[in-house]
Write a sequence for this structure.
């Protein structure tokens, strides 16, 4: 676990800072925050404490290999619970990431309070973050390898199934039409060339589903053999 | 103030959120901060907005992770981690 600490001053009264906190986003600097939602909000202690739960939605450039590992979205969410306390004049925000939390956990605490040296006009900002990475580097590597192998396997299966469905159609028609083969002429040769190209395409473009490939090639065959018949 | 309001994570809730935010921000500055309110106002806008949000939390699959976080760092504790975790 790593600890991060930071503090700074704002040249505005505490009340104003807390009001601005609800309007913090969007702003020109933090463009990665794309949405802020309030999930729960309660007024307690005779109207002196306001507790809010918010969902902060972030979109940022995550390294591609991380995205692959965690499921492929660059949108992530943070949950924040904040308390405005009029008695102690503090605004405390506690937040934690909801996304990627099995790999990395960031607990952040932010506190705004009237500045001790100038409580009326200035606000003190204090920030602390507890960062815990759960995955050792070898674990990440294993995960990446596992993922890659699985993905490769899945894609390979798709490619094989797709090609097999095509081969089935070919051999079926081939048996039936063997005696026509010689008469098929140039048009079929062209279609076969098409098929070869498609088959190669299929071996490479592994994302295509077998049914898609099947229907796509089935039409080519149908067309080819229709031409052969006439 | 002419401030641009932030969007909702669910586009269909953004308009409802804006209506709620407008009401809330007014209440916050004019009543809460001045210690004039013992009631969380804007309930009409709030109900419409959170109904939309709750449905989309489920739809977008955010709910499970949220529930887990809620258990770990309850609202009632001001979002502080439960003692058994540390």
């Amino acid at each position: 676990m790593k600890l991060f600490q930071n503090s700074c001053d704002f040249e505005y009264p505490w009340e104003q800072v807390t009001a601005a906190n609800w309007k913090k986003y969007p702003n020109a600097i933090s463009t990665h925050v794309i949405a802020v939602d309030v999930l729960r909000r309660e007024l307690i202690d005779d109207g002196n404490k306001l507790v809010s739960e918010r969902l902060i939605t972030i979109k940022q450039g995550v390294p591609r290999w991380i995205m692959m590992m965690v499921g492929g979205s660059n949108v992530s969410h943070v949950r924040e619970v904040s308390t405005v306390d009029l008695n102690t004049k503090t605004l405390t925000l506690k937040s934690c990431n909801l996304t990627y939390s099995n790999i990395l956990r960031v607990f952040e605490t932010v506190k705004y309070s009237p500045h001790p040296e100038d409580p009326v006009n200035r606000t003190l900002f204090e920030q602390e973050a507890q960062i815990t990475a759960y995955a050792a580097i070898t674990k990440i590597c294993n995960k990446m390898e596992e993922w890659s192998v699985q993905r490769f396997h899945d894609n390979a299966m798709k490619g094989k199934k797709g090609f097999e469905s095509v081969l089935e159609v070919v051999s079926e028609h081939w048996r039936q039409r063997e005696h026509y083969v010689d008469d098929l002429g140039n048009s079929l040769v062209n279609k076969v060339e098409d098929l070869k190209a498609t088959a190669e395409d299929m071996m490479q473009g592994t994302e295509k589903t077998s049914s898609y490939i099947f229907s796509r090639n089935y039409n080519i065959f149908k067309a080819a053999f229709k031409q052969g018949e006439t | 103030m002419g401030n641009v309001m932030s969007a909702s994570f669910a586009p269909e809730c953004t308009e409802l959120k804006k209506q709620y935010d407008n009401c809330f921000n007014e209440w916050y500055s004019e009543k809460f901060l001045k210690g004039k309110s013992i009631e969380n106002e804007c309930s009409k806008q709030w109900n419409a907005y959170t109904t939309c949000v709750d449905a989309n939390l489920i739809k977008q699959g955010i709910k499970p992770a949220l529930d887990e976080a809620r258990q770990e760092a309850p609202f009632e504790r001001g979002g502080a981690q439960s003692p058994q975790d540390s």
